[in-house]
Amino acid sequence: MILLVIENLKISLAAVFANKTRSILTALGIIIGILSVTLMGTLISGLDRSFENSMSWLGKDILYISRYEWFSDMEWWEVRNRPRILPDYVDKIKERSQYAQAVAPVMQRGASLSYKEKETRTEIFGTNEEYMETINTNIMLGRFFTRNEDRSGSRVTVIGDGIRKAFFGDQDPIGKYIKIDDMKFRVIGVLEKQGKFLGFFSVDKQAILPLGAYKRIFSRRGWMRLSVKIPSEKMEEGLDEVISVMRHIRGLKPNENNDFAINQTKAFEKQYTTLKLAIGGTGLFITLLSLVVGGIGIMNIMFVSVKERTREIGIRKAIGATNAMIMGQFLMEAVIICLFAGMVGISLAYFFSFFINKFFPSTLPLGLSMFAMLMSMIVGVISGFIPSYRAAKLDPIDSLRYE
Amino acid sequence: MPLISLNKIYKIYNVGGEEVRALDGIDLNINENEYLAIMGPSGSGKSTLMNMIGCLDTPTSGDYEFENEVVQVMDDAQLASIRNRKIGFVFQTFNLLPKATAQHNVEIPLVYANVRKEQRAKMALGALDSVGLSDRSHHRPNELSGGQRQRVAIARALVNNPSIILADEPTGNLDSKSGQEIMQILDELHNKGNTIILVTHEDNIAQHANRIIRLFDGKIIEDLEKK
């Protein structure tokens, strides 16, 4: 049995290599199919990882109160007239909510940072001393600012690791003065390295200032959001409570709609799942389409191969090949073409994944490669089946006479 | 006990609603070490008879026993096995695999008989040697003359030590000198104890045999034994 398999393997390899161009052209559909399924998988696994990182930065146990829903189909003019989120909500929420463990107001804008002749453009955040509790990042060097520093409008700042590297290199940044839009701020702390948020904006390139100083210098009127930390096992109750607290602050009547938004990372997750499904669905569609087309191509070429070798089939049968052996010979040929196509597809995907890696940290998952090979094999078996069956059933006498 | 025994063998085709009797009640016994020639004009049924004896075809009705095994009830795999182990075919058009070397061509029956690689090579070279082609084992068919190709085919037929060798017009595609060489080899094989069945329409070729049967319209019309 093993001997026969080896022999069939040799025959099939010889047949495939005897018609190189034909084999390659035939394999093209399968190559594209395998390439698309593996690339899609690589992309999704990369997205997954980067999404998870980004979400952990946001924090799952945080409610984000602002004027706007993150993902909403509301018209902009409906939202436009909502009242602002005001700084004194912080104390009001803390006073009335039993679940809120920390409440941090956050204002954000672009600014230019400079240290000596080095300059960079980045996002600055104005917040209070509870901010650290609402993000999943630690202080790497120095310390965060205190309540007093916030109240007194001290010009101190905590910078991201990216800024530290760009401005100070190996030097100790603590106590140094940097300029934020030409205002001097003293660096008192550095945040841990975080990486990019959803692959777009680098969290490491931020500077955090006390809200007091921020408002005095930059703007009183930017938009503000509140980050409210809730114990993660009490999210449901916390959400309900914060909503009612907010409604109370706003003085809403029971029949009036909320004129504020409370966002959670869940919203991102929902959005992300939709995106993932879209990528996956498109990839799967392309994959199936090209595998079907490729499979039909293989079937076609196998019919040609059987036809061309009718006489060989007759000879082999006359000297003792059973139907099963002939069938095995041609099935093997189809499977070899498909496996070859699978390997080419995976190699190409591996090659392309280096480019994807520039945007998302991603590698071709091993399991996916194996799945892709299995799939090519299955396509080979399915598309080779009918031609091989026909070859096996050929009448030896007619085949021997075939010219 | 005959090696091959055919009893009331019929092979009937339906061509356009018309019944064609390719074999019309053949009774034939062939003994071990016989040298039999089957003759007849084209359309007389000699090819059909040869395919029947060679287990490439099964009868419409009748009884065929090959070394006491009943052939007409066998399935494809059993027929293939009988062809592989008991019958060596030599065809008019040689029927070698063009891309395989002489040695590989001779080895193919052994592959289907599940013989190990080293053993295969040994047996194939032995068979090639017995037809005087041991120095051509790595040549492909297109690098060999017609006579040499037919000798490779004979080596392939011999390699499994079959019970019978079935030669269908073995000299039909050869010049007379090569044809004589081939007949000489077949004569030698017969002298060594092999059973040979020859299909031919040439009298001088048939004269090599000890027994000649003539077919006409699917019937045996003459069965002549030479003493």
In sequence order, what are the helices and strands of chain A, one letter per element? HHEHHEEEHEHEEEEEHEHEHHHHH
CATH class of chain B, anyone? Alpha Beta
Q: Hey, roughly how much beta strand do the residues of chain B contain?
A: 25-35%
**Low-confidence sequence ranges of chain B:** none
Assembly type:
heterodimer
Molecular structure report:
- The complex is a heterodimer of chains A (403) and B (227).
- Helix content of chain A is 56%, strand content 17%.
- Chain A contains 13 helices and twelve strands.
- Chain A has a six-stranded mixed barrel with strand order 2-3-10-5-7-6.
- Chain B has one domain (33-57, 84-225): P-loop containing nucleotide triphosphate hydrolases (Rossmann fold, 3-Layer(aba) Sandwich), CATH 3.40.50.
- Chain B has helices at 46-53, 76-86, 102-112, 117-130, 146-158, 176-191, 203-206, and strands at residues 4-15, 18-30, 35-39, 61-66, 69-70, 87-90, 164-168, 195-199, 211-216, 219-225.
- In chain B, helix 3 crosses helix 4 (117-130) and helix 4 packs across helix 5.
- Chain B starts with a strand and ends with a strand.
- Chain A binds chain B through residues 1, 3-4, 7, 14, 18, 311-312, 314-325, 396-397, 400, and chain B through 51, 54, 56-57, 76-77, 80-81, 83-85, 89, 91, 95-97, 99, 108-109, 111-117, 156, 160.
Features:
heterodimer; A: 403 residues; alpha+beta; 2 domains; 6-stranded mixed beta barrel; two-stranded antiparallel ribbon; 12 strands; elongated; B: 227 residues; alpha/beta; Rossmann fold; 4-stranded antiparallel sheet; 7 helices; 10 strands; 34% helix; globular
Briefly say what this structure is.
By secondary structure, chain A is an alpha+beta fold. Helices cover 56% and strands 17% of the residues of chain A.
Give me the secondary-structure topology.
The complex is a heterodimer of chains A (about 400) and B (about 230).
Chain A: H1 2-18, H2 20-58, E1 62-66, H3 76-80, H4 89-96, E2 102-115, E3 118-127, E4 139-142, H5 147-151, E5 156-159, H6 161-168, E6 177-180, E7 183-191, E8 196-197, E9 201-202, E10 206-210, H7 211-217, E11 224-229, H8 235-250, E12 261-263, H9 265-308, H10 310-318, H11 323-356, H12 366-393, H13 396-401
Parallel strand pairs in A: 3-10, 5-7
Antiparallel strand pairs in A: 1-11, 1-12, 2-3, 2-6, 2-11, 4-7, 5-10, 6-7, 8-9
Helix pairs in contact in A: 1-11, 2-9, 2-11, 2-12, 4-8, 9-11, 9-12, 11-12
Chain B: E1 4-15, E2 18-30, E3 35-39, H1 46-53, E4 61-66, E5 69-70, H2 76-86, E6 87-90, H3 102-112, H4 117-130, H5 146-158, E7 164-168, H6 176-191, E8 195-199, H7 203-206, E9 211-216, E10 219-225
Parallel strand pairs in B: 3-8, 3-9, 6-7, 7-8
Antiparallel strand pairs in B: 1-2, 1-4, 4-5, 9-10
